[in-house]
Write a structure and sequence with these properties.
Elements: E1 8-16, H1 21-32, E2 38-43, H2 49-54, E3 57-63, H3 69-80, E4 84-88, E5 96-97, E6 106-107, H4 115-119, E7 121-125, E8 130-136, E9 150-154, E10 158-161, E11 166-172, E12 190-199, E13 202-207, H5 237-252
Parallel strand pairs: 1-2, 1-3, 3-4, 4-13
Antiparallel strand pairs: 5-6, 7-10, 8-9, 8-11, 11-12, 12-13
């Protein structure tokens, strides 16, 4: 898929609500800069169909950025033709406020058409941010080889899954996704944190970790200044190791993991 000179064209979509997208964008572009043959175009949403159509790889770090019908099809076509899509954190989220008087604050409407079936999941809710353990599901896979279970303080995603997916890392949770209409769990079963989903000739790699938030990122919720900065999993060495391997795969289609 690369050009005759070996150049790789990447598209990074990074934007949305309630997160520090400046920080995430900087981290991802800094990592991509280590690959001198990669040229990256950056957008805040999916209104970039020409770029996606010509891209070799797609990286998304969004929250509540819902593609319209045409954009949904462009993303489906990108994967189907052999594209590699590294979908991070809230890429699978569509969130709307509930009606006045509702016991919950947010609903997660099924407004992304057939796209969740291609990326393998759709966000339903998450419990309050707290430490949790990430366990390795497939220790022989190069994305997670030699990575021991590790703790993160991040958003723990409860999602509607669209199998088959190849789960590489997971966590466990039983309880309520406070504030959300859905995402409440009573069954203790693995919750995917990192997985692969094939579609057509391409593959989506979904990594749910990566929450980050600055002091001024939730002003639309009536909080002018949170008074703190939250870097979530970005400061966890195991997250950095796995993300680097996922990026290498997205760029090259191959992975030769460095020791964890």
């Amino acid at each position: 898929m690369s050009g005759p000179s070996g150049r790789i064209d990447a598209v990074l979509v990074c934007g949305g609500q309630w997160h520090d997208f400046d920080y995430a964008r900087l981290q991802l572009l800094s990592a991509l800069a280590d690959y001198e043959h990669v040229r990256t175009r950056v957008f805040e949403n999916y209104d970039c169909l020409e770029a996606i159509d010509s891209a070799d790889l797609l990286i998304t770090y969004t929250c509540n950025v819902v593609p319209d019908v045409g954009q949904q099809q462009a993303l489906i076509d990108f994967v189907g033709r052999g594209g590699r899509w590294l979908a991070l954190h809230g890429t699978n989220a569509a969130i709307e406020p509930t009606a006045p008087g509702s016991p919950s604050k947010y609903v997660t409407p099924r407004s992304m058409g057939d796209l969740p079936a291609v990326i393998g999941s759709q966000f339903l809710g998450h419990p309050p941010i707290a430490p949790y353990l990430v366990e390795i599901t497939d220790p022989d896979h190069p994305f997670v080889a030699d990575v021991e279970p590790f703790e993160v303080t991040d958003e723990l995603y409860i999602s509607e899954l669209h199998p088959p997916i190849q789960v590489l890392a997971h966590t466990r949770f039983v309880g309520a996704s406070t504030g959300f209409e859905e995402g409440h769990t009573s069954v203790d079963e693995p919750r995917p944190v990192l997985y692969l989903k094939d579609h057509g000739d391409g593959t989506v790699c979904y990594f749910t970790l990566g929450h980050c938030r600055g002091r001024f990122d939730v002003q639309d919720l009536g909080i002018d200044d949170l008074g703190k900065v939250d870097r979530g999993s970005w400061v966890v060495p195991q997250f950095d190791t796995i993300l680097a391997r996922c990026l290498e795969w997205a760029i090259t289609g191959l992975i030769s993991p460095e020791p964890a």
